[in-house]
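User: Predict the structure for this protein chain, please.
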Amino acid sequence: MLPIIGGVVVGAIAALAVPSLVSGVVSGTRALTKGVIKGGMAAYTATSELVAESGEHIQDLVAEAKSEVKQAKKAHVES
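Assistant: Here is the predicted structure, written as structure tokens:
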């Protein structure tokens, strides 16, 4: 009979403690998930800026190359 009472007591304590533990785990998981999302957003922003800057540099290089080719053709025609 005593093991049954002990089991009931343990079960009652577990029934009272589990919602609190689950709430804590869910809260911790939620905070972790939000942190991961925020990190992903920051990485996306940084990557977008890097890609935009790289695109600008490439456009500048293309414009310079076109200008040099045009000048070379002009110098060739004049000579």
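The two ends are 114 Å apart (CA to CA).
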